[in-house]
Amino acid sequence: MTTRPRPTSAPRESSATERVERARATGGEPGLEYEDATPYELYVGARTLHGLQRTITEHPAEPAFLVISQVMELYFGLLRTEWTTARAQLRGDDLAGALSSLRRTVFHLDALNATWASLVWLTPAEFNGFRDRLGEASGFQSYGYRHVEFALGLKASSVVRPHKGMAAVHADLLEGLAAPSVYDEVVGYLSRHGFDIPEEVVHRDFTQEHEPSPAVEAAWAAVYRDPSPTQPLFLLAEVLTDIADEFTTWRHRHVMAVRRSMGAKPGSGGSSGLAWLERSLAKPVFAELWSARTLV
Fold first, then answer.
1. What's the rounded Cα separation, in Å, for the pair 249 and 109?
2. 126, 61 contact by CB (below 8 A)
3. Helices (H), the chain
4. How many folded domains does the chain comprise?
5. Is 59 helix (H, G, I), strand (E, B) or coil?
6. What b/e readout covers 96-113, taking b as 16+ CB neighbours within 10 angstroms?
7. Residue 270's domain is classified under what CATH number?
8. Domain assignment present for 56
9. C-alpha–C-alpha distance, residues 146 and 82, integer Å
10. Does the predicted TM-score (pTM) go above 0.85?
11. Which regions in the chain score pLDDT beneath 50?
């Protein structure tokens, strides 16, 4: 995974004792005097963030479209970070740690889904006001979203091709494509902890999507026959179900946003648009978690 760049400057570290002394010295009022940028600015980089909102038209609807797209990209990166941590924890048999990491991502996905609310007002006429200036730019080209899909086990080598012109991004995507997904690591964990999962399911070509396995389905059915809130594998099954549910909701809201703003027109990047998104929506995440419920 690509190493995240560290800020060139950061707030000066301070201790709990210093914070108490500072509050006593100011009488509990916030600090007001700083020689350079505020410590908040040094940490958050708000000037840099706001400097990235470079619209290409004067249409009043475009700023919201651009900002929400950028906010979604930030959440894609956050989800990738969390799921990378969770996969390492599962590989290390740290189920408690993995549960914490995965549980956080349910909240991240819920917040990501909420961002669509800032675009549901976008009518076809408003979108047409700036859409032509987008050229071939399309959400399909988001490599951050591809990492989200790869982490969830939705693998396809074809979606890496658009990024050949960016060597570092392309290499990073190929690495993500070949890496075990969150679900692959979960299946490996089940195999190491008492469930009879075939070797060819545990050790396989991870560039390919996971094929539903009767053995994995039977494992989840066994887990769900003991739905105790203190049963760690039941908690794992439920948090994975929440993730799949939230991600499916995101894809559904994407379909509805496209349906409202452009109907069945072709997509900017060459796809059929709505029809292509609807086909993508039909692909399940963590398939045996859902089919196992029929067996319980």
1. 9
2. yes
3. 16-25, 39-44, 46-51, 62-91, 95-114, 124-131, 143-151, 167-178, 182-192, 199-202, 214-224, 232-262, 274-281, 287-291
4. 2
5. coil
6. eebbebbbbbbebbeebb
7. 1.20.58.480
8. no
9. 15
10. yes
11. none
Q: How many residues does the chain have?
A: 296
Same domain? 125 vs 2: no
Both 150 and 277 in one domain: the answer is: yes
Domain coverage including residue 277: 61-295
The per-residue pLDDT for 280 is: 79
CA 20/CA 28 separation, integer angstroms: 9
Q: Which two tokens stand for residue 35?
A: 């020689």
* 10 and 92 within one domain: no
Residue type, 41: E
Helix (H, G, I), strand (E, B) or coil at 149: helix
Whether residue 29 sits in one domain with residue 132: no
Q: Which helix (H) or strand (E) holds 267?
A: none
Question: In this structure, are 47 and 71 located in the same domain?
Answer: no
Which pLDDT belongs to residue 189?
A: 98
HSE (side-chain half, CA atoms, 13 Å) at 201: 21
Q: What is the pLDDT of residue 31?
A: 82
DSSP string, 232-245: HHHHHHHHHHHHHH
Token output for 211: 């094929």
Domain identity same for 47 and 183? no
Tokens of 174: 């190929």
Q: Are residues 17 and 154 in the same domain?
A: no
Sequence letter at residue 288: E
129, 57 in Cβ contact below 8 A?
A: yes
Q: How far is CA 258 from CA 116, 182, 261, 265, in A?
A: 11, 29, 5, 9
> Are residues 76 and 216 both part of a single domain?
yes
179 in a domain, yes or no?
yes
Picking from 148, 173, 175, 155, the residue whose alpha carbon sits closest to that of residue 163 is 173
Residue 159's closest CA among 176, 175, 140, 144? Answer: 140
